[in-house]
Amino acid sequence: LGPMKLEPKPPKSSVARKRRRSLKVEKVKPEELEDTVSKEKTETEKTIAKMFDVLKINKKVRLENLVLNRISFAQTVENLFALPFLVKDGRVVITVDDNGSHHVSPRNAPAASMITSRKVVYSHFIFRFDFNDWK
Description:
The chain contains five helices and three strands. It is α+β, with helices and mostly antiparallel strands and 135 residues long. It has a domain at 43-127: Structural maintenance of chromosome 1. Chain E (Arc Repressor Mutant, subunit A), CATH 1.10.10. β2 (92-96) and β3 (102-106) form a beta hairpin. The model has no long low-confidence stretch (mean pLDDT 78). InterPro entries: Nse4/EID (IPR027786), Nse4_C (IPR014854).
Protein backbone atom coordinates (compact mmCIF):
# COMPACT_ATOMS: atom_id res chain seq x y z
CA LEU A 1 0.00 0.00 0.00
CA GLY A 2 2.83 2.38 0.71
CA PRO A 3 3.19 5.45 2.94
CA MET A 4 0.32 7.87 3.25
CA LYS A 5 0.86 11.48 2.31
CA LEU A 6 -0.37 13.83 4.99
CA GLU A 7 -0.25 16.96 2.89
CA PRO A 8 -3.33 19.15 3.19
CA LYS A 9 -5.33 19.54 0.00
CA PRO A 10 -6.96 22.84 -0.97
CA PRO A 11 -10.76 22.79 -0.70
CA LYS A 12 -12.69 22.43 -3.92
CA SER A 13 -14.59 25.49 -4.96
CA SER A 14 -18.24 24.96 -5.75
CA VAL A 15 -20.10 26.84 -8.42
CA ALA A 16 -23.75 27.55 -7.76
CA ARG A 17 -25.94 27.26 -10.83
CA LYS A 18 -29.05 29.32 -11.19
CA ARG A 19 -32.21 27.38 -11.76
CA ARG A 20 -34.38 28.45 -14.58
CA ARG A 21 -37.94 28.95 -13.65
CA SER A 22 -40.43 27.75 -16.17
CA LEU A 23 -42.38 30.50 -17.82
CA LYS A 24 -45.68 28.71 -17.69
CA VAL A 25 -46.70 27.84 -14.15
CA GLU A 26 -49.80 25.70 -13.92
CA LYS A 27 -51.39 24.36 -10.82
CA VAL A 28 -52.29 20.79 -11.38
CA LYS A 29 -55.39 19.57 -9.63
CA PRO A 30 -56.51 16.12 -10.74
CA GLU A 31 -60.20 15.51 -10.73
CA GLU A 32 -61.46 13.39 -7.90
CA LEU A 33 -63.16 10.16 -8.78
CA GLU A 34 -66.11 8.92 -6.81
CA ASP A 35 -65.96 5.53 -5.10
CA THR A 36 -62.78 4.33 -6.76
CA VAL A 37 -62.17 1.89 -3.93
CA SER A 38 -64.27 -1.22 -4.37
CA LYS A 39 -66.13 -2.39 -1.30
CA GLU A 40 -66.60 -5.97 -2.50
CA LYS A 41 -65.76 -8.78 -0.12
CA THR A 42 -62.94 -11.13 -0.93
CA GLU A 43 -63.48 -14.88 -1.12
CA THR A 44 -61.87 -15.34 2.29
CA GLU A 45 -64.24 -12.79 3.87
CA LYS A 46 -67.20 -14.57 2.26
CA THR A 47 -65.99 -17.92 3.60
CA ILE A 48 -65.54 -16.43 7.08
CA ALA A 49 -69.07 -14.99 6.99
CA LYS A 50 -70.58 -18.31 5.86
CA MET A 51 -68.69 -20.19 8.54
CA PHE A 52 -69.86 -17.82 11.27
CA ASP A 53 -73.47 -18.06 10.00
CA VAL A 54 -73.30 -21.85 10.32
CA LEU A 55 -71.97 -21.44 13.87
CA LYS A 56 -74.76 -19.01 14.78
CA ILE A 57 -77.38 -21.55 13.70
CA ASN A 58 -75.67 -24.60 15.21
CA LYS A 59 -74.23 -23.49 18.55
CA LYS A 60 -71.69 -26.31 18.80
CA VAL A 61 -70.16 -27.95 15.71
CA ARG A 62 -67.47 -30.59 15.43
CA LEU A 63 -64.36 -29.17 13.82
CA GLU A 64 -64.21 -31.77 11.05
CA ASN A 65 -67.86 -31.18 10.15
CA LEU A 66 -67.24 -27.44 9.88
CA VAL A 67 -63.98 -27.56 7.93
CA LEU A 68 -63.94 -30.81 5.96
CA ASN A 69 -65.43 -30.93 2.46
CA ARG A 70 -65.30 -34.54 1.33
CA ILE A 71 -65.65 -33.62 -2.35
CA SER A 72 -63.08 -30.82 -2.63
CA PHE A 73 -59.66 -30.71 -0.99
CA ALA A 74 -59.26 -27.07 -2.13
CA GLN A 75 -62.44 -26.03 -0.32
CA THR A 76 -61.21 -27.82 2.79
CA VAL A 77 -57.97 -25.84 2.67
CA GLU A 78 -59.93 -22.58 2.22
CA ASN A 79 -62.03 -23.45 5.27
CA LEU A 80 -58.88 -24.19 7.26
CA PHE A 81 -57.49 -20.83 6.16
CA ALA A 82 -60.65 -18.93 7.21
CA LEU A 83 -61.13 -20.52 10.65
CA PRO A 84 -58.05 -18.94 12.32
CA PHE A 85 -59.36 -15.46 11.49
CA LEU A 86 -62.48 -16.17 13.54
CA VAL A 87 -60.39 -17.62 16.36
CA LYS A 88 -57.95 -14.69 16.33
CA ASP A 89 -60.77 -12.14 16.48
CA GLY A 90 -62.26 -13.99 19.44
CA ARG A 91 -65.50 -14.72 17.61
CA VAL A 92 -65.24 -18.50 18.03
CA VAL A 93 -63.71 -20.82 20.58
CA ILE A 94 -62.34 -24.31 19.97
CA THR A 95 -62.72 -26.77 22.84
CA VAL A 96 -61.67 -30.39 23.26
CA ASP A 97 -64.01 -32.80 25.03
CA ASP A 98 -63.10 -35.93 27.02
CA ASN A 99 -63.12 -38.11 23.89
CA GLY A 100 -60.51 -35.90 22.21
CA SER A 101 -62.82 -34.45 19.56
CA HIS A 102 -62.66 -30.73 18.82
CA HIS A 103 -65.79 -28.56 18.94
CA VAL A 104 -66.17 -25.03 17.58
CA SER A 105 -68.68 -22.64 19.20
CA PRO A 106 -69.46 -18.98 18.56
CA ARG A 107 -68.92 -16.38 21.25
CA ASN A 108 -68.95 -12.64 21.63
CA ALA A 109 -65.65 -11.00 20.81
CA PRO A 110 -63.97 -9.29 23.76
CA ALA A 111 -64.08 -5.51 24.01
CA ALA A 112 -61.07 -3.55 22.84
CA SER A 113 -60.44 -2.28 26.37
CA MET A 114 -60.18 -5.86 27.65
CA ILE A 115 -57.56 -6.64 25.01
CA THR A 116 -55.46 -3.55 25.70
CA SER A 117 -55.57 -4.11 29.47
CA ARG A 118 -54.37 -7.70 28.87
CA LYS A 119 -57.31 -9.22 30.75
CA VAL A 120 -57.97 -11.31 27.65
CA VAL A 121 -55.13 -13.59 26.58
CA TYR A 122 -55.09 -15.26 23.19
CA SER A 123 -53.62 -18.69 22.73
CA HIS A 124 -52.44 -20.18 19.46
CA PHE A 125 -52.29 -23.69 18.10
CA ILE A 126 -50.88 -25.42 15.05
CA PHE A 127 -53.16 -27.56 12.94
CA ARG A 128 -51.44 -29.96 10.54
CA PHE A 129 -53.55 -31.15 7.64
CA ASP A 130 -52.43 -32.50 4.28
CA PHE A 131 -53.90 -34.41 1.34
CA ASN A 132 -53.35 -37.82 2.94
CA ASP A 133 -55.25 -36.71 6.07
CA TRP A 134 -58.06 -35.46 3.85
CA LYS A 135 -58.30 -38.83 2.08
